[in-house]
């Protein structure tokens, strides 16, 4: 692995950081999360029109830029620094790769250009106790099922040659505003139980979407109810969905790890700036040895997490999402995500502590970074289970004993 960034990668980071600095400051961020959409449509248009960010990792034949997951992860490191609230994660990281991997040629040609251009957004609706179950981040998803009724997930039936969905999905990222929903549904009954993916228009008859109050307001979530909704099967009926979801989980975890590293790096920068200015006993707080030691520990954690995240992003680019990907492959993305979330929680926690009384206030941004760490761990973790899964996938505990 070559850890040096290419000129193109450096340019992506620099341009994106400049744009977010101008368009996504603290005031703009709070206004965006309080809006009905949960994000700033003008910022999303700028990210799409000026940088092609939604299509960064999509092939050029579908209107994308033609880069890899590595470039998308580096871009998300910058969006993580500013906690930018936009449909990038839901559209470009979680949904578009599945459309590319499983969709028919006609479906790809119809849907991907709109996603790449940013004129259409998408959301992945996966029923069950946690999204990490389907993405195989915290365990093998071989036994995952998309539900057992309205409260337990989504069922699908076929009537007059048409697929119809009914059920409910909680915690759908950007599900309240997405133009397209990619829904995992259960079919086949008990004897031939299967999980398939279906395309549903966000404004289709029978779709009820309710934005939920989330711990991390910068990641809008929705409850999606499907009441006998017409749907289109993604790909072929014999497609093997679970391996594709597992492969997506590893690449998505790598992107999320880079995003968390960006957030941790930024909160560390802000804390260092503050302790250099804040004076106590006639000298800057940052001059005290105890404060230096605490921030040094945060710095080491952030740099270690960055190395792990970059390696995971590089490895994900070498093994893109595909229907034939093996569920049992070592979960490098999950391991990097665990380290990055731990680093972000440490950085945000120390930031709140070292900012003193102001760090605990609603008006200060330190609490937003801490909520990002806690919210991501609830959605994609927890950390100890991510590490357990990585150890299991690597065969460290084969036969109940530590492998050496």
Automatic annotation (TrEMBL):
Residues 6-118 form the Acyl-CoA dehydrogenase/oxidase N-terminal domain. Pfam families: Acyl-CoA_dh_1 (PF00441), Acyl-CoA_dh_N (PF02771). Residues 254-393 form the Acyl-CoA dehydrogenase/oxidase C-terminal domain. It comes from the Bacteria. GO terms for molecular function: acyl-CoA dehydrogenase activity; flavin adenine dinucleotide binding. Keywords: FAD, Flavoprotein, Oxidoreductase. Its cofactor is FAD. Signal peptide: none annotated. Belongs to the acyl-CoA dehydrogenase family. This is Acyl-CoA dehydrogenase. It comes from Streptomyces filipinensis.
């Amino acid at each position: 692995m070559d850890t040096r960034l290419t000129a193109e990668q450096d340019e992506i980071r620099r341009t994106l950081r400049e744009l977010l600095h101008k368009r996504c400051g603290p005031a703009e961020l709070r206004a965006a999360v309080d809006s009905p959409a949960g994000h700033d449509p003008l910022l999303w248009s700028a990210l799409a029109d000026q940088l092609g960010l939604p299509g960064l990792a999509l092939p050029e034949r579908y209107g994308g830029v033609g880069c890899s997951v590595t470039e998308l992860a580096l871009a998300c490191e910058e969006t993580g620094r500013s906690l930018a609230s936009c449909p990038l994660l839901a559209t470009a990281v979680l949904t578009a790769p599945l459309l590319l991997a499983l969709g028919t040629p006609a479906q790809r040609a119809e849907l991907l250009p709109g996603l790449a251009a940013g004129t259409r957004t998408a959301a992945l609706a996966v029923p069950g106790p946690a999204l990490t179950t389907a993405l195989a981040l915290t365990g093998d998803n071989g036994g995952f099922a998309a539900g057992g009724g309205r409260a337990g997930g989504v069922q699908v039936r076929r009537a007059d040659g048409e697929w119809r969905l009914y059920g409910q999905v909680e915690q759908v990222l950007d599900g309240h505003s997405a133009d397209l929903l990619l829904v995992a549904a259960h079919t086949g009954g008990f004897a031939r139980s299967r999980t398939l993916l279906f395309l549903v228009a966000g404004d289709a008859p029978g779709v009820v979407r309710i934005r939920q109050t989330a711990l991390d307001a910068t990641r809008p979530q929705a409850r999606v109810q499907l009441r006998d909704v017409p749907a289109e099967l993604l790909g072929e009926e014999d497609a093997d969905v679970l391996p594709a979801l597992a492969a997506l989980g590893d690449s998505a975890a790598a992107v999320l790890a880079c995003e968390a590293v960006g957030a941790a790096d930024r909160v560390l920068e802000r804390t260092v700036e503050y302790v250099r200015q804040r004076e106590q006993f006639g000298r800057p707080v940052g001059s005290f040895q105890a404060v230096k030691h605490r921030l040094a520990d945060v710095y080491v954690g952030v740099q270690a997490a960055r190395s792990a995240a970059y390696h995971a992003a590089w490895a994900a680019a070498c093994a893109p999402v595909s229907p034939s990907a093996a569920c049992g492959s070592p979960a490098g993305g999950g391991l990097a995500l665990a380290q990055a979330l731990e680093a972000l929680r440490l950085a945000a926690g120390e930031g709140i502590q070292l900012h003193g009384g102001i760090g605990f206030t609603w008006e200060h941004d330190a609490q937003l970074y801490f909520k990002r760490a806690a919210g991501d761990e609830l959605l994609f973790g927890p950390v100890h289970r991510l590490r357990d899964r990585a150890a299991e996938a690597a065969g460290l505990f084969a036969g109940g004993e530590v492998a050496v």
